[in-house]
Design goal:
The longest helix is centred in the middle third of the chain and has 90 residues, at 73-162. The chain is an all-alpha fold. It has a two-stranded parallel ribbon. It has helices at residues 48-65, 73-162, 173-178, 207-210, 212-221, 224-227, 248-260; strands at residues 39-40, 43-44. Residues 4-156 form the CFAP91 domain. InterPro entries: CFAP91, CFAP91_dom. It holds the Pfam family CFAP91. Keywords: Cell projection, Cytoplasm, Cytoskeleton.
């Protein structure tokens, strides 16, 4: 009634292929037992190299079976000659294996050197690109500065050209007062005008407000309606009786007037 789920696939949980027990009949040596050194992952499944090794083992067993017996001097010499030939053949085969191994190592070394050279080339290209970007940025900044200086000098030359002969121009009052950036509204300090100095001249000075005699004269000139206030008592809104109570009808009239508003 319960289900489980593992973090591994079935293929990851498989063990090596099973090798059953075996029994060898007496007097027989199966060829399959010569391959007992091959195990799964080391020789199995068999490839081209394993097949060549098996063929060499068969040839060696056939050669050992074909060796003459050591029962006479001629047979011993023949046997020694065959063994020398086989030894030379084995040494030649070992040399071929060594050469093949050296070729494989040489190919691996070539690939490593090629990969290192490619990485170095990429690093050099990136470094050159960064250097080029920095030069381009410095060039753009210098170009912007030259353009800014060019505009500044051009405006100065245009301003000098307006009065190239040194002639005086008449003052245009209308133009000065219509332009809020003119000297009339915003005088410059570099021509000798400091707006913070002499600020007291903008303070309003009046004889009628600063002196007592002026205040007396100002008060004497005002009409009586300003100095002598007449207050009228307001009329009561409600109709009251002689005892001071408000009549119910008067209160009802006031409430109706409020509702009507």
């Amino acid at each position: 009634t319960l289900g489980t789920q593992t973090d591994y696939r079935d293929g990851e949980a498989q063990t090596d292929p099973y090798s059953p027990e075996y029994v060898i009949p007496s007097g027989s040596v199966p060829e399959l037992l010569t391959l007992a050194t091959l195990i799964w992952g080391r020789g199995l499944p068999a490839g081209l190299a394993e097949v060549e090794m098996i063929e060499r083992a068969r040839e060696k067993r056939a050669w050992e079976a074909a060796l003459p017996a050591v029962d006479s001097a001629s047979q011993i010499a023949k046997r020694r000659k065959m063994m020398d030939d086989m030894e030379r053949k084995e040494w030649a085969f070992r040399e071929q294996e060594i050469e093949k191994l050296q070729e494989v190592r040489l190919e691996v070394l070539k690939k490593l050197l090629q990969r290192r050279e490619e990485n170095q080339n990429e690093l050099d290209a990136k470094r050159l690109d960064d250097h080029w970007q920095n030069h381009q940025k410095a060039k753009e900044e210098k170009f912007k500065k030259i353009q800014h200086d060019f505009g500044l000098m051009l405006r100065k030359l245009i301003a000098k050209r307006k009065n190239v002969m040194g002639k005086l121009e008449r003052r245009d009052i209308i133009k000065e007062y219509t332009d809020f950036a003119s000297q009339t509204y915003a005088p410059l300090s570099r021509i000798g005008y400091f707006p913070d100095n002499h600020s007291e001249r903008y303070v309003v000075k009046n004889f009628y407000l600063d002196t007592f005699a002026g205040l007396c004269e100002l008060e004497a000139s005002l009409p009586d309606s300003v100095t002598q206030v007449k207050i009228k008592a307001p009329k009561p809104k409600y109709t009251a009786t002689k005892t001071g109570f408000i009549k119910r009808s008067a209160k009802l009239d006031v409430d109706l007037a409020k509702v009507h508003q």
